[in-house]
């Protein structure tokens, strides 16, 4: 097979602010493998969750070294290729894994969800993200989402550097605003590791009283963060979900006894193959699944969407906040996202890439 990687730029319509900072414009990588006239595509890019950081240029350099080594193999010779992937960073592995799987599905003429025997009708509503900001900015963002998607699930970012009082104001303003919407809307909280254990213990019962339905990553990620979750859980009346804390199978095993769910992301785990394994393992350990994204286009979210039938809390909204998403094929009806019915990932490049 031949492989290559092309950088492109994306811009968010609304910059996203979380407890660790703000992102607006980002460099991404389109990964391609070709063999026997079929081209498989994948996406990867920068990931920075505080505990781990991978830059997109470093990921591109890893892939540039990989391509000559993959040359003797076909894209479906996974076992032969596997040792070559062992030293890759999770985002580099993600890019190549998606391109190989896209090639495989296209070669067989089937979408991946079908090859894995998943039921496309089981995809639930995705949450949409409201970042940190002033009360007025949060109110405005809610109404933008209402116009665009009519969401039934909101993910509100907390862990504000301005402190717990500001976090509480944002929650109350959100609940007030949502009371004006038709129908009921679930409010999930994601603190992105912005609280210490004492703050998390104070906030969790208060959030439950306000009507929040879930609490994600209240504590900072660290190698021994399971101890913090073990202490927090008896005081937390909401389902506790980990995101930044859980990258590997080892993290999953370490955290599973102390939390209720895990937010799976393709860039963190190294692509669809590994995320499918994580999903099966997490379910076996009794956890519920969220499936999330970073600043991903509908190519990466279209790949993640292949696993939506396995997931209780879909969270694939990043492509809905891009000024110019270059890809086509991911289905959305209202706030329900479903994987494409086309072969492979089912996503095509529809516009030229911005460099
Ligand atoms: Mg999160």
UniProtKB/TrEMBL annotation:
GO MF annotations, alphabetized: metal ion binding; racemase and epimerase activity, acting on amino acids and derivatives
Q: Which residues are noted in the entry as Mg(2+)-binding?
A: 190, 216, 243
Q: Which SUPFAM superfamilies match?
A: Enolase C-terminal domain-like, Enolase N-terminal domain-like
Tell me how the cofactor is bound: Binds 1 Mg(2+) ion per subunit.
Q: Which residues form the active site?
A: 157 (proton acceptor), 265 (proton acceptor)
InterPro entries from the xrefs?
DgoD-like (IPR034593), Dipeptide_epimerase (IPR034603), Enolase-like_C_sf (IPR036849), Enolase-like_N (IPR029017), Enolase_C-like (IPR029065), Mandel_Rmase/mucon_lact_enz_CS (IPR018110), Mandelate_racemase_C (IPR013342), Mandelate_racemase_N_dom (IPR013341)
Can you give the residue ranges of the Mandelate racemase/muconate lactonizing enzyme C-terminal domain?
Answer: 136-239
Q: What is its EC number?
A: 5.1.1.-
Which keywords annotate this record? Isomerase, Magnesium, Metal-binding
- Cofactor(s) annotated in UniProt: Mg(2+)
Q: Keyword GTP-binding: yes or no? A: no
| One record GO biological process | amino acid catabolic process
- For the keyword Hydrolase, the answer is no
Q: Which family does it belong to?
A: Belongs to the mandelate racemase/muconate lactonizing enzyme family.
Q: What name does this protein carry?
A: Dipeptide epimerase
What organism is the protein native to? Candidatus Synechococcus spongiarum LMB bulk15M
């Amino acid at each position: 097979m031949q492989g290559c990687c092309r950088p492109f730029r994306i811009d968010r319509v609304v910059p996203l602010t979380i407890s660790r900072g703000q992102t607006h414009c980002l460099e991404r990588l389109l990964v391609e493998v070709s063999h026997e006239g079929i081209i498989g595509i994948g996406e990867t890019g920068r990931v920075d969750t505080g505990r781990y950081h991978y830059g997109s240029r470093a990921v591109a350099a890893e892939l540039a070294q990989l391509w000559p080594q993959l040359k003797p193999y076909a894209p479906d010779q996974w076992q032969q290729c596997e040792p070559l992937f062992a030293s890759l960073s999770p985002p580099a592995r993600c890019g190549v894994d998606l391109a190989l799987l896209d090639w495989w599905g296209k070669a067989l003429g089937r979408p991946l969800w079908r090859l894995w025997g998943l039921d496309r009708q089981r995809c639930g509503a995705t949450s949409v993200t409201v970042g940190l900001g002033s009360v007025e900015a949060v109110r405005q963002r809610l109404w933008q989402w209402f116009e665009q998607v009519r969401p039934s699930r909101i993910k509100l970012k907390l862990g504000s550097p301005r402190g717990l009082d500001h976090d509480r104001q944002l929650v109350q303003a959100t609940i007030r605003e949502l009371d004006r919407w038709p129908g009921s809307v679930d409010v999930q909280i994601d603190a992105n590791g912005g609280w210490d254990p004492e703050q998390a213990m104070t906030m969790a019962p208060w959030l439950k009283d306000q009507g929040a339905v879930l609490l994600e990553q209240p504590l900072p990620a660290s190698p021994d963060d399971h101890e913090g979750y073990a202490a927090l859980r008896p005081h937390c009346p909401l389902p506790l979900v980990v995101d930044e804390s859980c990258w590997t199978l080892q993290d999953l095993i370490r955290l599973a006894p102390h939390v209720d769910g895990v937010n799976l992301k393709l860039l963190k785990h190294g692509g669809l193959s590994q995320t499918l394994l994580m999903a099966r393992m997490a379910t076996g350990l009794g956890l519920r699944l969220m499936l999330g994204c970073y600043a991903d286009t509908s190519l990466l979210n279209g790949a993640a969407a292949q696993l939506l039938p396995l997931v209780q809390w879909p969270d694939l909204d990043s492509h809905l906040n891009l000024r110019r998403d270059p890809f086509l094929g991911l289905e959305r009806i209202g706030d329900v996202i479903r994987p494409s019915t086309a072969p492979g990932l089912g996503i095509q490049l529809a516009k030229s890439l911005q460099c």
